[in-house]
Amino acid sequence: MRRIVSSSMCAVVAALALVATASAQSVTITAPTNGSVLSGSDVTVSINVTGTTLVPAANATRLEDLHVHYMLDTDATPYLSGTTPVPLGNPNIVHSGALSNTFSGVAPGAHQVVVLLGYSNHNAFQPPVAPSVSFTIAAAGAGAAQAPAALPRTGDGFSGMPLLLAAFGAVGLALGTMLRRRHRAH
Predict the structure, then answer these.
(1) What is the DSSP string of 134-176?
(2) How far apart are CA 36 and CA 57, in angstroms?
């Protein structure tokens, strides 16, 4: 009987320890910033983590050895309850103990990244810790002024400029002559 009470007490203490630390866990995405417009096709997601030390999933020996799931354009909703493990083998979901991850070859357009904190069994930490940011990858050449292939040389420009100036001068001369004749006639 004493042994049963002892092991039950240990289980209760362990459960309470997990619950007590649950509120102290936080993940903040520091890059990219929400609403940012990025150029290029590589996106590095950087995070700050407090309340725990991340452990690569492959090195986890205890359930509470936590890691993060970097999720690019992936709905995290099915995993937030903590009953469905985050799947392996999806290139848009990276299981990691690192504070940053780079997604390569991200297409131009709107995107979202969710960083989901998870246990060693790939279930979401409870209560869920899953910050997200939205950002846009600019189309190649968008937003930046394109440099000319060759800079103009001194004297280059509109080749018809002298002809245009001469035409304005002739119109002005003709108009002035007409106005003087009218003035003399009156």
Answers:
(1) EEEEPPTTTTSPPPPSSPPPTT-S-TTHHHHHHHHHHHHHHHH
(2) 30
Q: In angstroms, rounded to a whole number, what is the distance separating the alpha carbons of residues 179 and 126? A: 90
**1 within a domain of the structure (yes/no):** no
| 153 inside domain | no
The answer to whether position 28 is within a domain reads no
Closest CA to 125 of 116, 138, 137: 116
Which CATH number fits the domain that encloses residue 92?
A: 2.60.40
Domain tally, the chain? 1
CA proximity to 80, closest of 116, 41, 28, 132: 116
Paired sense of beta strands 93-96 and 109-118, if any? unpaired
Can you tell me the distance from the alpha carbon of 122 to that of 81, in angstroms, rounded to the nearest whole number? 12
What pLDDT, in 10s, does the model give residues 60-116? 899 999 999 999 999 999 999 999 999 999 999 999 999 999 999 999 999 999 999
Q: Is 97 exposed, middle or buried (0-12, 13-18, 19+ CB in 10 A)?
A: middle
